[in-house]
Amino acid sequence: MLTIALNEYGDFHHLGQDEEDIKTIHFIAGVVYDDMDNEQDAENERIRLDRFFRAVAEESHSLYPQGFFGKLKVDEAEEETFNPDAKKDMRIFRDAIDAALPEFLAHGTYNGEELVAMPRVGHYAIALTLKSEAGKTEYLQPFYE
User: Nearest CA to 122 among 136, 134, 108?
Assistant: First the structure.
């Protein structure tokens, strides 16, 4: 049973902003986790994901989950305030996640260390569609050979 899914669309890492690059590089991607109908494995994977993000944040000196959004909470009693270095901090966190993600998706580990005592039963699958010059309308056209 597919239990954890992440779908994204966009110009990630701003690949289409440079005139030297191919214009408007966009993609639609999906990452899904199949727990193989094992409810305990689904719960273990949620814990594993949380521990993964926390470990990456700690090693990259980022805040979790605030590092995703560029906000800092100065004190529990105070309201959230904008971090003037938010873009730089988010880039550091993002780059650390990018570097560690292949190992995590393949093995469920971070720097070779298990994040949950129970081994992973399920697996991740990744689907990707690149946007063409014709845009999304091309996806709606019938397929002809």
Answer: 108
